[in-house]
Each structure stands twice: as structure tokens, then as C-alpha cells.
Amino acid sequence: MIVVTGAAGFIGSCLVSGLNAKGYEDLILVDDFSRTEKAPNLEGKVFSQKVDREEFAEWLDTNHKMVYFIFHIGARTDTTEFDTAIFDKLNLNYTKKMWQQCAEYAIPLVYASSGATYGLGEHGYSDSHELVEKLKPLNPYGDSKNDFDKWALKQEDAPYFWAGLKFFNVYGPNEYHKGRMASVIFHAYNQIQEKGFVKLFRSHNPEYKDGEQLRDFIYVQDVVSVCLYLMKNKNQSGLFNLGTGKARAFLDLAKATFHALNLEPKIEFIDTPEDIRDKYQYYTQAEMGKLISNGYDKPFTSLEEGVKDYVQNYLVGKRYY
Question: Where does substrate bind (predicted)?
């Protein structure tokens, strides 16, 4: 059995689809399945059982001998949530319990960390373990992910193989339920459909022109590819960045969305809201050397290729992966 937590969510459901495509069907899906808006993400997927996230620890104690691998993708990811108790419960303590069980039962574990751990990037974007204690995330979500990374690196008892994946800006199908937390590409597409133009934040940093704020955007199918690679190649445990290693401008993203629809770009700029202006990231770029030196050699999808596939094959017609 292969366990996927957060299985009804964006990345988790895409991972389930990727596993199915490789012939894996004995899957245990873990999530809060009461959220019916996520149900379409699992339509057509093949799996063995759904387990409520609150019941999973007990389920694993009973069934651990049959579990081959765990992908712990589930998390509270709302960067605008400031109730730290929610993050302590769902992102920190929940993952600690799972880690301890995987260590005890010798189950390999891949879990979702985040590029949000890097804060404003004042210490760079290296996934070196020595950097983790210095990082200063910008919100409770980022804090919760970095707090777990720090905790994990201090543990003497660990799963025999583990990887914490620092996801950068992931985009792609099955994020329809995410609302304001969905990718900029998702919102750009909807703005084009509704208004015929895209609004981007104006730059308030003299070093960057409007729309030239930079992010490392990674297509969700590349994330799935890396997860499958790590399941098969348990070479080195640790934290791994998961971006493309190439920062791109929001202006490039917006233009790519228009081009995928065969439309001329129409872009307007609006002020960045004052409540997030002092915490706004103008640049992120994952250092990808560690994953590549680990043996992963598949090229990452370019922004233009990824946006075209996402828009034409999924957003148009609201199809799922």
C-alpha cells in the first residue's frame, strides 16, 4: 500500500493520478473528506480506501505492515491564516506523530515542506541543512513548515529514508477549490475570461519594474515526477528544494496565459495592498543542485509549456488531472 495524505487537495490528487498512471492502485487516501468542494479531484481515481485524517494515526498503528511508502502532502496552506494553533495541530504536531510512526515501523516518508520557509530570501535559497535555523518565514504557515524542518533535523530516531520537499510556486490542474490561494495563472485565466485583462501588482521596490517581480513557478506534474522518483530512488535523506531553479516574472506568466488563449496581452497594474506590502517577496529561486546531484535528471517544464498545457488541457473546460 502507498499512503497519500491531502489526497483530495491540489498536489495530493495530482500525485494520486500520477501513481495510477504508473500502475499503482493499492492507495490509501487520507484527508478531511467532509470538504465536498474537493470531491471532483478524486473522480476517476483508483484507490483502495479513504481514511479520515483524524483517524489515520490509529489506522497506521494497525496496518503499518502493509504500508510501502507514505507521501504526506496534506497541510493547512493558507498564508493569510494567523491562528497559530491551527498550524501547530495540522502542520507541526500531526507531522511529528507521522514521523515517529514511520521511524518505528520502518516506513519511508516524503513530506511537504515549503519555499515559504525562506521568508524574504535574506539568507538565500539553499536547501542546506545548516541554513534552516537562520530562516525567518513571513507568516505562521511558513513558520510551521520551518519549525517541523528544524525538529526533524534534530531527531535521532528517523525513518530509514525521508525527504522534506520545499515546494516553491506550484501551479496546475485540480486547484479549482483553493480560492484566493490558487495560483496566479488560475486567477489570470479567470480574469481574462471575465474582464478581458489581467491585473498584476505594481512594484514598490525601485530595483524591480512593474510586473517584473520574480518567482520560481513549477508545474504540478513536475512535482509528481520528483515524488515518484524519490519513491524509487531512496539515495539520500534530507530537505530538498522543489522548484525549477529559474525565476520568472509575473509579466511572463500573464503573457503566457494570454498566448495560450491566442489573445493579445492586456495587463493593468494595481498597488500591492498595504497589509502585505512590507512582506512581499520580489524574488524567489530554488537552488536545485541537491536534487540533481541525487540523480534526478529530468528537465523541468518551462513556464510557457506548463501554462499552455494547464490552460488548454485543463482550465478550458474545467477538466481535472
Answer: 169, 180, 187, 201-204, 215, 280
- Domain assignments of the chain as residue spans, ordered by start: 2-171+216-245+285-297
Amino acid in position 140: P
The reply to whether 277 sits in an annotated binding site is: no
- Residue closest to 221 by CA, chosen among 147, 309, 287: 309
Cα–Cα separations (whole angstroms), residue 141 to 83, 118, 136, 180, 197: 9, 12, 12, 15, 31
Residue 248 marked in a binding site? no
Question: For residues 229 and 151, what is the distance between their CA atoms, to the nearest angstrom?
Answer: 25
Residue 78 pLDDT exceeds 90? no
Residues labelled as active-site residues: 141, 178
pLDDT in tens, 123-136: 999 999 999 999 99
Q: Which residue has the cell 536547501?
A: 127
Q: Choose which CATH entry (3.40.50.720, 3.30.420.40, 3.40.630.30, 3.40.50.150) describes domain 2-171+216-245+285-297.
A: 3.40.50.720
Q: Which of 88, 242, 238, 241 is nearest to 153 (CA)?
A: 238
**235-262 confidence digits (pLDDT tens):** 899 999 999 999 999 999 999 999 999 9
C-alpha cell at 33: 473528506
Cα 189 to Cα 167: distance, rounded to the nearest angstrom: 22
pLDDT of residue 197: 97
Q: CA 198 → CA 41, 73, 250, 277, distances in Å?
A: 27, 31, 11, 20
176 within 8 A of 319, measured Cβ to Cβ: no
Is there a binding annotation on residue 72? no
**Its pTM surpasses 0.85:** yes
